[in-house]
Write a structure and sequence with these properties.
With 293 residues, this protein is of the alpha/beta class. It has ten helices and eleven strands. The chain has a seven-stranded parallel β-sheet. Strands 1-2 form a two-stranded antiparallel ribbon. Strands 4-5 form a two-stranded parallel sheet. The chain is globular, with a radius of gyration of 18 Å.
Length: 293
């Protein structure tokens, strides 16, 4: 059994365990926010990726904005976001997102993007413009980014790091052995270089990454991956359960128990991480404001 579309259950393999069953009902506030975002042509990863935490977060409101459209140039098998040929960047998008941050009085803004291998800079310039727009319109807001690997371009990392952010995030997603099956167009060690580059550019910016469990990894592989993240300069990490978003996605191999997530949290803290969020429903931007150093 798998989960998609904000908690809708779809039978396809393993039975959903009790700790993964939750009812998320749309409130008037959630529906109003969705309508506002739709009218203003603002994409969120919450909607595009079918995050199960959407109703809870939208009631706060907490939003993870997705820039550069909602069509990705890569074909990762864990993600529901549409794959294909994206439209050119919308240069009014940063202004609209800044307007949303101000309108909803968001104190911790998270900005992510699809992967844009079609762009020469991988989209780093659009990140910079979006960050600048938010900073100009709303004072005192914390800004967290969750970036792609920019095709391995460290110039892209430098451009984002120099734009005035508080948290630099880049998700490693899974262990090296599973990359060919889960992230065929990405590279584990290239992602480590992205994190290492960010950590070397500034000690004032929190460097963060995220892992999904239940794809077929072992504890030893997860532990080794956490050690490699720590060596790259990463000091905050999120660990959550993978939920198969479509019938054609990589299958769920295991539903990890809350107790094991708690053990992994303790293990990561013992390794040296400063901030760890670990649990079945944890996502990289879920309660992101609590991961601030």
């Amino acid at each position: 059994m798998v989960v998609r579309d904000e908690g809708e259950a779809v039978v396809c393999g393993l039975r959903l365990p009790p700790w993964m069953k939750r009812r998320n009902r749309e409130t008037e506030e959630t529906l109003a926010l969705k309508a506002w975002l739709r009218r203003n042509r603002i994409h969120t990863v919450c909607q595009s990726a079918g995050c199960p935490n959407l109703p809870e977060c939208f009631q706060k409101p907490t939003v993870t904005f997705i820039i550069l459209g909602n069509v990705c140039t890569r074909h990762c098998r864990f993600c529901r976001i549409e794959k294909g040929t994206p439209l050119p960047p919308d240069f009014q998008e940063p202004t609209r997102i800044a307007g949303a941050v101000k309108t909803f009085r968001i104190s911790h803004a998270v900005v992510t993007s699809v992967t844009r291998d079609d762009l020469q800079d991988g989209g780093s310039g659009h990140f910079r413009r979006t960050i600048h727009s938010i900073r100009t319109s709303t004072k005192g807001v914390h800004i967290e980014v969750l970036v792609p690997d920019f095709g391995g371009s460290l110039d892209g990392v430098q451009e984002v790091m120099g734009a005035g952010i508080d948290v630099f995030g880049h998700n490693i997603e899974t262990v090296p052995r599973l990359y060919p099956a889960v992230r065929p167009e990405s590279d584990f060690f290239r992602s480590l270089e992205v994190l290492k580059s960010a950590s070397m550019l500034s000690s004032d910016v929190c460097v963060k990454s995220g892992l999904m469990l239940g794809l077929g990894e072992t504890f030893e592989e997860v532990s080794d991956t956490l050690s490699k993240l720590l060596d790259s300069g990463c000091r905050a990490v999120s660990i959550g359960q993978y939920l198969m978003p479509t019938k054609n996605s990589h299958p769920v191999r295991e539903y990890v128990s809350p107790e094991r997530f708690e053990c992994l949290r303790d293990h990561a803290l013992r390794l040296g991480f400063k901030r760890v969020a670990s649990g079945p429903y944890v996502r990289s931007s879920y309660y992101a404001e609590t991961m601030m150093p």
